[in-house]
Amino acid sequence: MGCCLPFSSRIFLLASALVIAGCGGGTTSATAPPPAQQASAPVVSTKPAMNGAELVTLTTTTPGAAIYYTLDGSTPTTSSSVYEAPFLVASDATLNAIATASGATASTVTSKSFSLGIPSGTLVWSDEFDNTTGVNAQPDPTVWTYDTGAGGWGNNELETYCGWNASASPCTTSSPNVYVGTDGYLHIVAQQPSAGVYTSARLKTQGLFSFQNGRLEVRAQIPEEQGLWPAIWLLGNNIATVNWPACGEQDVMEHVNAATTPDWIKGSIHGTGFTGTSLGMNYQFSSGETAGGWHTYGMIWSKGSVSYYVDDPSAPYVTYTTSTVSGLSGAVWPFDAGGNFILINLAVGGTWPGSPNSTTTFPVQMLVDYVRIYTN
Question: Which fold, 37-114?
Fold first, then answer.
């Protein structure tokens, strides 16, 4: 049945809406939605690193916002590097950053120029693991955090990783798995607290420190025994958003099991379309040398290129470039997408080394003298 009242008595034109009353007495209204709020522009904070380099932190006051940035002066978009951790700036650069959040428009662009003029080969960041306290000390908590727990870590490893001062069984503060000794070395200790139970440590700078491009050096002494797997490696900050292997992995040094003749370490890269051992190269030590001695393990990283060396940065034993992966089906070069963080660990067991046996002695440790970054 239609309306029974005159048309003219039921229409009112208002400034902001048109209200129509029907026979049943209800009303409907149409109003313009409120304008979307704009995300707060990122704030750039810096603190000195070494020899003119700066450590950059980006923040925004918009809850839940993501920050995207570029360092080449281009306008950032949501396809640019996503900010995940403070990063080192050691060369001339123009930083541009935006913030985005659900339900908000993108922020204005925040810009900062860096005119550093740092010469090639300059030390711009390091952790020397100095300790003058007279007792074993915590690795710098502004640089290092830890992966903890068990579960195999994707490699069928046997250890439980324990962080600094961990006390939940099988970890114990009476026999720590990680500390900076009074000798000035970082100690990563693999232990066997009971039959079939192993503990160790895996340090990482994730969320605390990262860098992109430069020369990384780690001076270390690694153990060589059946079932042990020491490693120095890097992962992309964006692992939190794109996962592995899309984030990229740079294995500066890996070794498994007892010393061989000649002895060796391995340097590899991994990414989408090239995981496993397809892009890995063994470095063989000279006669009379072993991986168990003190050595400097290095990576030279520049746009489109990753090289590895042992002891001598002028003589890389392998170089990987974008052309290295260009012929591999589905391969994507991930190492120019943003900053990476550093990991150092001593695994026990796993698919590659196999399990410890009666020849493996515990406790056994990996020592690190320093971690340093130089400009290219």
Answer: Immunoglobulin-like (2.60.40)
